[in-house]
Amino acid sequence: MRAILKGAAPESFEKWKGMANPDWAPNFSVLPNPEKRDLHASLLSEQGFTCCYCGRSVDLDESHIEHFRPQHRFPALELDYNNMFASCQRARPAGTPIICGHHKGEAFDEENFLSPLLDGVDMRFSYALDGRVQARPADIPAQTMIAALALNSGFLVARRRMALAAVFDPQFIASATRGELGELSASFRRRDTDGKLTSFYHAIARFAEDLPQ
Q1: Which stretches does DSSP call E strand in 68-104?
Q2: Is the pLDDT at 213 greater than 80, yes or no?
Q3: Are 50 and 197 in contact (CB under 8 A)?
Q4: Contact between residue 85 and residue 4 where contact means Cβ atoms under 8 Å apart
Q5: Domain limits of the chain?
Q6: What SS3 state is found at 21?
Q7: Which terminal residue of the chain has fewer beta carbons within 10 Å of its beta carbon, N or C?
Q8: Nearest to 62 by CA among 99, 32, 10, 95
């Protein structure tokens, strides 16, 4: 799981919400285009075009608007920009593993669910070279999120393993200095010139930060 810094909601979305009157109340189910597309694009942009949960690269066609607190259970928050993110899997073709926002579905636990907005939330997770995400046994919320989002599904584990293997070989792991690992971590936390983050950037950064020296 990764941390997200929210920006301002798109102007078109806020203007549409501002059209509320005694005879009409806006709700997510009737959000039209281009307002919905602008909202989706804004969420992707602030997330560096990566999924809010697993961190893999996504775009408009490969993601959906996710409500952290499910809109049907928390109707007062269905149009709250701070409750919305871009999660992977816009559609779910037959045979495709269900992960992240779609796997979480309508589930929510106020005590044991971790928001991507929580300061330092990514530091509560670590990653192994085999691609698995881990949390301390005593950190029940982090363990809960791994299960709720299916972050250790074979689909995600295989892709994280490939991302980590592309950066960390045994020779580098054995010889890298603390300074080199710090620079590596910082480089993967930076966006490119198009504002995009590398797929699974947070897993790579966290692995570098956790390597002993």
Answers
A1: 84-88
A2: no
A3: yes
A4: yes
A5: 11-210
A6: strand
A7: C
A8: 99
